[in-house]
From TrEMBL:
Keywords: Carbohydrate metabolism, Glycosidase, Hydrolase, Polysaccharide degradation, Signal. It holds the Pfam family BNR. This is 1,4-beta-glucanase. Belongs to the glycosyl hydrolase 74 family. PROSITE patterns: TAT. Transmembrane segments: none annotated. Gene3D superfamilies: YVTN repeat-like/Quinoprotein amine dehydrogenase (2.130.10.10).
Length: 730
């Protein structure tokens, strides 16, 4: 591979990220309808607070600047810690839909000699359909970036995402950077990432299936690189070293035979001149059942097994995170991972690994700021998927560790709480903004089920919706004419559907469900008055209908397979469904008992096509058909007309009508006049104005959008990894 193969360099125009946090707009008062012009509408944006909810895979403290740290996530971008505000500042919200692969952060690196420099290696997936990786460098702590597009793929949301860091500034030359890849060996740049080439002298052959380089770490002026395959077995040699940056050799005496595992993380104790390496028998975060911790005395070459506990039998797990305390010789923290028998923990030693203490055993965990972390139980756990830990170089008792849902921190090694303010990684699937009641918002998401947002400035006080608890929501619906009645479906072990009579504050599980509901649960809809439920399923299972809150179910054979049911907002007898395969709108006039085809010949082939019904109007349907545009029907789906001016429409919702208007504002994620973003129309789709900007794009946002039916101009946007965004006219 030649240097030119990896060197397409572009400068990002207008990608500055403001370091100051944005105040949450008030949801009081009413906005005035703006004139319909081509100019964008000025909006302010910020997250509805949930708090984390995703896998924090790395935190790097700067060794020379107190309070400066960076966090990476598997699919929700990178963040810089604002010590004065005690919150994380997102650094990649400018990533457009076309650049959605950039929200996955494979690795982050700082330059110890230049505090304002930070580097990111980005790329969420390595599959053929995913884009190639991207390298970013910044000279102002992530406010602006210079970009180099790579010709290799990175996989921040794949197995092995908890290893690393894979990106390293050479301690001998700040202009030289190293990047470990999953399938293309080790890359090197001598111009701060403007160009990259395959590192010469690095022995392992690239693997089509393996994890490739798992870590890079500096120990004095020497560099170490970890290498491991993804099939659960380590290569013959798993750790390499270079002293000159040109020749790499296997580190002598490294764990071999039965002890050979994949090196996960490494941390160097400069005072003791000892390198600590954690190992596991699979890249993780799942599938690990064995591991160890080894220490290398770099001056003598002596290896020592310093594993706190030897995994085995029912207590199988791997080791993951590793961090040293630079202020105290021999003080090291390592993490366990995938330890389901007794739960994952952090082990800490102050004597170079001769003895260890489990920090979980004395931990008091306070999640009062983020109640969802109780997961529907009485108390939170210490967490799972613990593959990283970091020690503040200026405060020996300030530790943070990442889990599959949050980042915990302590200042005294005993009391722990989420250190997650500002970091929002939720992948949101459903949004409802009720027309009345306490909550302005209900949401359904991957990994955390359903939430009732009693306020937007704090994590929902009730935590996850319980009775039952879902991991991932698959459906969320409110009866249009009876907003106190809400139903939800999802993936759960104690049932897969529930209904609420108080707007989603409390829930009752369906008394019964089809036998296949657990394996194939899908979207659900309540008709206008809540008297009928339609529950659609995946894997070819037939749609089911209930007229008694889920106590009994009957098959609806005429409902199109895997379609999402949509209720008419006014007439309880009318329900709709769109067959994306055939391009046909189906309708029911008998409260969902039977469905017949209405309009045919509509856009087909795009399974993300979404049907929406305008509130307060019977038979007023809108169809977001992806790159095939936007369509509308005013006769219950018998005919549709394509709306001009939208090259693409990915999702659509409605909000309160502007003052003086009799029709709700329409919001869509769409491409209008060549610009993809969030657009609003106050004249039934005749004209559109963009309401986000190039600094607020958040990658893929085509899942769900809805306006607030009580406050004109306020819009809620679902993102795939940056939580719920709240927009309001500035």
């Amino acid at each position: 591979m030649h240097a030119s193969d990896l060197s397409r360099r572009t400068v990002l125009a207008g990608t500055a990220v403001t370091a100051a946090s944005v105040a949450l707009p008030s949801l009081q008062g009413r906005s005035t309808a703006a004139e319909n012009t081509a100019a964008p509408l000025p909006y302010t944006w910020r997250n509805a607070v949930i708090g984390g909810t995703g896998f924090v895979t790395g935190v790097v403290f700067h060794p020379a600047v107190q309070g400066l740290a960076y966090a990476r996530t598997d699919m929700g971008g990178a963040y810089r810690w604002d010590d004065a505000a005690a919150r994380w500042i997102p650094l990649l919200d400018w990533a457009s839909q076309a650049d959605q692969n950039l929200l996955g952060v494979e690795s982050v690196a700082i330059d110890p000699a230049h505090p304002d420099r930070v580097y990111l290696a980005l790329g969420t997936y390595t599959q053929s359909w995913a884009g190639n990786g991207t390298f970013l460098r910044s000279d102002d702590r992530g406010a602006t970036w210079t970009r180099t597009d790579l010709t290799v793929k990175l996989g921040s949301n794949e197995d092995g995402r908890g290893t690393g860091e894979r990106l390293l500034v050479d301690p001998r030359d700040s202009d030289t950077l190293w990047l470990g890849t999953r399938h293309d060996g080790l890359l090197k740049s001598t111009d701060r990432g403007a160009t990259w080439a395959r590192a010469t002298g690095f022995p392992p052959a690239p693997s089509a299936t393996g994890q490739g380089v798992t870590l890079l770490v500096a120990a004095g002026r020497d560099l170490y690189a970890g290498w491991g395959d993804g099939d659960g077995t380590a290569a013959a040699v798993t750790l390499y070293r270079t002293s000159d940056g040109a020749t790499w050799n296997a580190v002598p005496g490294q764990p071999a035979g039965a002890a050979a595992k994949i090196p996960m993380r490494a941390a160097y104790d400069a005072r003791a001149m000892e390198l600590y390496v954690t190992y596991a028998n699979a890249p993780g975060p799942n599938g690990q059942s064995d591991g160890s911790v080894h220490k290398l005395a770099v001056t003598t070459g002596t290896w020592t097994d310093v594993s706190p506990v030897t995994p085995g039998g029912a207590d199988g797990f791997g080791y993951g995170g590793a961090a040293v305390d630079p202020q105290h010789t021999g003080t090291v923290v390592v993490t366990t991972n995938n330890r389901w028998s007794s739960g994952d923990t952090l082990f800490r030693t102050t004597d170079g690994g001769r003895t260890w203490t489990s920090l979980k055993d004395t931990a008091a965990i306070d999640v009062s700021e983020y109640p969802y972390l109780k997961w529907g139980k009485d108390a939170p756990t210490f967490g799972w998927w613990i593959q990283m830990v970091a020690v503040d170089p200026f405060d020996s008792q300030h530790l943070v560790y990442g889990t599959g849902a949050t980042l915990y921190g302590t200042r005294d090694l005993k009391n722990w709480a989420p250190q997650i303010r500002g970091l929002e990684e939720t992948a949101v699937l459903f949004l409802i903004s009720p027309p009345d009641g306490q909550a302005h918002l209900l949401s359904g998401s991957r990994d955390i089920g359903t939430l009732y947002h009693d306020q937007l400035t704090a994590s929902p006080s009730g935590g996850l919706a319980t009775n039952p608890v879902f991991t991932t929501a698959t459906g969320l619906s409110q009866a249009p004419a009876k907003p106190s009645y809400v139903v939800r479906t999802g993936e759960g072990d104690q049932g897969n559907g529930a209904y609420s009579n108080d707007g989603g504050q409390t829930w009752q599980p369906f008394a019964a469900q089809p036998s296949f509901a657990k394996e194939a649960t899908g979207p659900i809809a309540a008709n206008a008055d809540g008297g009928v439920l339609l529950w659609s399923f995946t894997q070819g299972h037939p749609t089911q209908r209930s007229t008694d809150n889920g106590a009994t179910w009957t098959e609806v054979a005429s409902f199109p397979a895997a379609a999402r049911p949509v209720a008419d907002p006014v007439d309880p007898r009318l329900l709709y469904a769109y067959d994306t395969g055939a391009g046909t709108l189906f309708a029911s006039t008998d409260a969902g008992a039977t469905f017949t085809a209405h309009a045919t010949g509509l856009p087909s082939g795009d399974t993300t096509t979404k049907l929406a019904a305008a509130p307060g109007r019977s038979g007023d349907l809108w169809l977001s058909a992806g790159t095939q545009g936007l369509y509308r029907s005013t006769d219950g789906g018998r005919t549709f007309a394509k709306l001009a001016g939208c090259e693409a429409s990915y999702t659509l919702g409605f909000g309160a009508a502007p003052d003086g208007s009799g029709y709700p504002s329409v919001y869509q994620v769409a491409t209008v006049d060549g610009v993809t973003g969030v657009h609003r129309s106050d004249d039934t789709g005749q004209t559109w104005r963009r309401v986000n900007d190039d600094q607020h794009q958040w990658g893929w946002i085509g899942e769900c959008v809805t306006g607030d039916p009580r406050v004109p101009g306020v819009v809620y946007l679902a993102t795939n990894g940056r939580g719920i965004q709240v927009g309001q006219p500035a």
